């Protein structure tokens, strides 16, 4: 049976001071840290989720290496002793990177699934919709920055196909990836919610996705798409217009990427727009 050793009995290789190139490393850390977490919805209810965390700090030239276990331990300590709320966890982890890991530059990304209950447009039957999202925190020269990202599935109908055809038009499954830099994560009255990102996309597209539809709902969705055709260029501009209303208010910056998975081509149509600032 192995003998249990103390720290004083074993060498700490990462604290070696010689025998390695003295170069600065901007990011070193751990990814795929999977833990339970909670997200507060806009209506005040709780979305329990599986969180997948990537956590990095920088490393100064005179330090050989970092202790990889520290990243996981910091996450577990915050969850065990303080909170499971994603916004509070992020803020505390950035503090810990600065105080305990002595880093002025850190990067944390938390991926999550976000569930909302949606109603069919006519029958009002309810079903769950699963959105993919992420929350990022960055410590840049000691200053905190926070970013919220949503991947929103929607339906798009081709304006050109509608215009040139005697009847019908091709449509496709599409995705909008929207990232915003948040102005505030603590004041609920000034918070840009995950639901706001979803609506920015779904209110701009040909038709939103609803998972449970009866025949009357399918007829409605089909005609809704036909009445609201959009190219990828239309989508990014419309979403950008929505985000512009909160620019320098609830958000500081934004990036929008849309993908239309063509139903009559093997290629994918893509368009990108931003606020003309740091997010590109």
Kindly describe this structure:
This protein is α+β, with helices and mostly antiparallel strands. The chain has six helices and nine strands. It has helices spanning 69-81, 86-99, 159-164, 194-202, 215-227, 232-244; strands spanning 25-40, 46-59, 106-119, 126-140, 143-157, 171-182, 207-208, 251-261, 268-274. Strands 1, 2, 3, 4, 5, 6, 7, 8 and 9 form a nine-stranded antiparallel beta sheet that branches. Helix 1 crosses helix 2 (86-99). It is elongated, with a radius of gyration of 23 Å. The mean pLDDT is 94.
Low-pLDDT segments: none
Biggest sheet character? 9 strands, antiparallel
What is the overall pLDDT average? 94
The portion of residues assigned to helices is 10-25%
Distance between the terminal alpha carbons, to the nearest Å? 55 Å
Rg: 23 Å
Count of DSSP helices? 6
The arrangement of helices and strands along the chain is: EEHHEEEHEHEHHEE
* Helix and strand composition category: alpha+beta
Percent of residues in beta strands: 35-45%
Shape: elongated
Number of strands: 9
Please specify the SSE layout and strand pairing:
Elements (H helix, E strand, L loop, with lengths): L24 E16 L5 E14 L9 H13 L4 H14 L6 E14 L6 E15 L2 E15 L1 H6 L6 E12 L11 H9 L4 E2 L6 H13 L4 H13 L6 E11 L6 E7 L6
Antiparallel strand pairs: 1-2, 2-3, 3-4, 4-5, 5-6, 5-7, 6-8, 8-9
Features:
280 residues; alpha+beta; nine-stranded antiparallel β-sheet
Summarize the structure.
The protein is of the alpha+beta class and 280 residues long. Helices cover 24% and strands 38% of the residues.
């Amino acid at each position: 049976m192995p003998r249990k050793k103390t720290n004083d009995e074993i060498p700490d290789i990462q604290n070696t001071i010689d025998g390695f190139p003295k170069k600065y490393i901007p990011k070193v850390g751990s990814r795929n840290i999977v833990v339970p977490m909670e997200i507060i919805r806009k209506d005040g209810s709780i979305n329990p989720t599986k969180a997948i965390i990537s956590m990095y700090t920088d490393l100064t030239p005179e330090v050989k290496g970092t202790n990889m276990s520290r990243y996981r331990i910091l996450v577990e300590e915050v969850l065990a002793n303080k909170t499971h709320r994603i916004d509070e966890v992020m803020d505390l982890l950035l503090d810990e990177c600065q105080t305990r890991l002595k880093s002025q530059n850190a990067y944390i990304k938390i991926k999550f699934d976000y569930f909302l209950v949606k109603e069919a447009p006519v029958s009002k039957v309810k079903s769950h919709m699963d959105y993919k999202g992420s929350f990022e925190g960055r410590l840049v020269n000691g200053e905190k920055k926070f970013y919220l990202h949503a991947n929103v599935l929607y339906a798009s109908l081709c304006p050109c196909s509608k215009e040139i055809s005697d009847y019908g038009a091709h449509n496709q499954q599409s995705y909008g990836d929207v990232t915003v830099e948040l102005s505030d994560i603590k004041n609920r009255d000034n918070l840009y919610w995950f639901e706001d990102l979803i609506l920015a996309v779904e209110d701009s597209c040909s038709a939103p996705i609803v998972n449970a539809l009866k025949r009357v709902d399918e007829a409605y969705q089909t005609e809704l798409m036909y009445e609201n055709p959009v190219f990828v260029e239309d989508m990014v501009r419309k979403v950008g217009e929505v985000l512009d209303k909160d620019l320098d208010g609830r958000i500081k910056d934004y990036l929008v990427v849309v993908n239309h998975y063509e139903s009559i081509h093997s290629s994918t149509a893509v368009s990108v727009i931003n606020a003309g600032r740091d997010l590109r």
